[in-house]
Amino acid sequence: MTTPHQPFVVGLTGGIGSGKSGATAYFEKLGIDIVDADEVARDVVALGSEGLKEIENRFGNSILLEDGNLNRAALREKVFSDINEKNWLNNLLHPLIRLRMQHLISESTSPYCILSVPLLVENKLTEMCNYVVVVDCPETMQLERALKRDGSTEETIRNIMASQATRNERIEAADTVLDNSTTLSALSAQIADLHNTLLALSSD
Fold first, then answer.
1. pLDDT (tens digit per residue) in 126-143
2. Which of the two ends of the chain, N or C, has the fewest CB atoms closer than 10 A to its terminal CB?
3. How many structural domains comprise the chain?
4. Of the candidates 140, 117, 112, the residue with the CA atom closest to the CA atom of residue 127
5. Residue 159 belongs to domain with CATH number
6. How do strand 33-36 and strand 8-13 relate by DSSP bridges?
7. Beta-strand pair 112-116/8-13
């Protein structure tokens, strides 16, 4: 009897505006399977999902768009103003997200797979990983990039940063820190080196 395939899981994270998405895209170019927490979070509340049914039972069909999909803006309003509802939602979604990520990891066929999670450290998902990579840049740069990209207010970005792990907490959790304070090509070069290290580690 063969034992199930246990992929080598590399957790990838970084604060808002750090360049985690760019790093994830480069790993994908190298042929590495990506399990993206943001995509998984969308999947578990997609049309016809168990997650969406539970949310509708809780909040009624005013939480849905006309086409039956989740009205994210309406849900956000309900949970951000009420800590009990926020806790209920987290208790529903976090186990569903974790299960789905584990399933996708088990299906990975590349030498290692990337688990790309904005809140890897905060949600203690490092325990699902064999290795942790943090994309890092100074906080002033995070703010600047996020403002440029998201069109959000400075206050919103600062609130998001405050709700995430501190830069030091992320760095302490890392096996490797990728410095993304200069150019995308400098980041790519670091990832290319790291890729070779990870290929060696995952083949042991």
1. 999 999 999 999 999 999
2. N
3. 2
4. 117
5. 3.40.50.300
6. unpaired
7. parallel
